[in-house]
Amino acid sequence: ESSEPRFQGARRVENLVSNSEDLTNAAWQKLNGVIATNATTATFNGTTNGLLLTQFVPPARNTGDGFYCFSADVSLVSGTVTADLDIKIVTGALGVLSVTLALGNSLTNSPQRFTVTAPALTSANHRVDFGFYSQIAAVCTFTNAMVEWIPSSQTNQNPSEYVSTGVASA
């Protein structure tokens, strides 16, 4: 950005999720029986399509100039997973949840980093959606939630390590 010093070869990483470490904040919608029991823990009561979701309008991006990378550390505190699709990461744009990563059988009681990359979902003034979906009664922790924009011109297109909301790193 214009206010930042430039370092040749540096990669700028910005977390686009507001309140990435506070699920109790109103920026995180709790739908169909989901309760944020504290800043990092959500309880799904088993209602079909339980959804913990945040939506935001990112800075203007041109479709095709890059992609969004969605990631979070997730652990299963309690609940019985019987299929991969029981719990998943959902992403999309303008209310259409389209890109998913099934977590179900991969979840353990230790936090693991899960990442979904999606083609450019938006152009200027379009909303981006990022959340967690459960079909079962479960308690999960979600920490280090992050959405970053990765330009297609960037040589290193791997997901970045977590950075706090409102903080850039190089």
Topology:
Layout: E1 13-14, E2 28-31, E3 34-36, E4 41-45, E5 50-56, E6 66-79, E7 87-93, E8 96-102, E9 112-119, E10 128-134, E11 137-151, E12 168-169
Antiparallel strand pairs: 1-12, 2-5, 3-4, 4-11, 5-10, 6-9, 6-11, 7-8, 7-10
Radius of gyration: 16 Å
The backbone outline, from C-alpha atoms, is: elongated
The residue fraction in helices comes out at: under 10%
Q: What's the SSE pattern?
A: EEEEEEEEEEEE
Q: Termini, distance in Å?
A: 12 Å
Q: Work out the strand percent.
A: over 45%
* Stretches with pLDDT under 50, minimum 5 residues: none
Task: Going across the biggest sheet, name each strand in turn.
Answer: 2-5-10-7-8
Class derived from helix and strand content: mainly beta
Number of helices: 0
User: Mind summarizing the main beta sheet?
Assistant: 5 strands, antiparallel
Mean pLDDT equals 84
- DSSP E strands, number: 12
Would you give an account of this structure?
The protein is mainly beta. Strand 3 and strand 4 form a beta hairpin. A 5-stranded antiparallel β-sheet has the order 2-5-10-7-8, with no helix packed on it. It has strands at residues 13-14, 28-31, 34-36, 41-45, 50-56, 66-79, 87-93, 96-102, 112-119, 128-134, 137-151, 168-169. The chain contains no helices and 12 strands.
Provide keyphrases for this structure.
170 residues; five-stranded antiparallel sheet; elongated
Brief digest:
With 170 residues, the chain is mostly beta strands.
